[in-house]
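Here is one chain, start to finish.
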Amino acid sequence: MSRRVLVVDDEKGIREALTQLLEYEEIEVQACASGSEALQRYSEFRPHLVLLDVKMQGMDGLEALRKLREFDAHAQVVMISGHGTIQTAVEATQLGAYDFLEKPLDTNRILLTLRNALQHVDLTSENVRLKAEVHQQYEMVGTSRAVKQVIERIEKVAPTAARVLITGENGTGKELVARAIHALSPRSRGPFVEVNCAAIPTELIESELFGHMKGSFTGAFADRAGKFELADGGTLFLDEIGDMSLSAQAKVLRALEEGVISRVGSGKAVAVDVRVVAATNKDLSAEIAAGRFREDLLYRLNVVPIEVPPLRARRADIAQLVAHFMGQLTKSGGAGGGGLQPKTFDAEALQRLAAHDWPGNIRELRNAIERILILAAGPVVTAEDVDRVAGVGRATGDGGQGRASADVAGAPWMRAATFEEFKQVAERTYILAKLKENDWNVSETARTLDMPRSNLYKKIERYGLTREA
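Its structure:
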């Protein structure tokens, strides 16, 4: 990529010397003699870096720097001065200058500063690109009334300091709502820290949230900050809050009421400035009645409730979601990109997808689209492709028995060499399916399977199961 540098200095000799040096380094250069001309050239030339003299007739360098940064907040500027003072350097830095060079200029110093400044430009551009990709990955897609109501609620609550409780079925996009609240809040420059309360064993949840001191329990080999401390100045997203132990709930309540936490094994109070956004797929009123959730904590969390609708309540958005997921999955590299070949969904295929109830909601739809892009034969996806590949169509004339028999014949456990291998493959497949059904909520899955949670954790570890499995 060709680099562009704008040289601004009222001394002709300085302009010519810098131009010659930069062109020798194969950099495209334009030069001008005043701050006002620099502003005009900047908008036309769009340089990666500006070398700007401080003392010039008319508009001086500091005023030109101020106006450049107003025009382009990402403008990279290195100031040059023959009368450098600490005060001038400090003022230039406060206005956003990257560095400060003193005359007479040293060639090695110029080249070093140039290299560092252009590397900084690359890092800044990459950061902007990655943020745009992350924003796209977590974008809320849809124009249905149900989605518009959620977006309106987000836009109203995000700029405030109010706590939010997000409810909805598994796979509906509760994390997207939490991230949108953070992105639109005054805390957007701070950290967004997520904790899945259901995925952490009860005996470790307090350490995970509040941190611990060395030696406070077996395995605590060093002091460690918890999620509350890590989220200081930002947003803490407590996902699956309904699965948190009562003892941890009591500590969370104290943190919300007093703004302080204590690490496990320490009596010292640590002040934290955290906005808590919580989410659950459970009926917390029923959990309170069963003695599994604190009523006072619910009142603290549920200042502003947001209910995320299931996909079956927003079928009008499915065509947009299909296009959105296909854009993600066919993009090479980047956030969530799978590099698959794009396909066209015909009208009947979209109708078939919209008619399905999607018990797994958005997550299930995305998986189905990925499966279709991989397995559908032609460039156009038909209703038959949706039925055959995604398995969301109507049953066949034999009640689905023909397809079921084919599915069993091609199942991975049917390729097992021994009965023991068959049992292991079948158990792994079964547990993975149940974990996916419960959105990897280990506690809920263990209850469904009537299995001690510790046993389930052992099997997850034994079979190397992950969300991506």
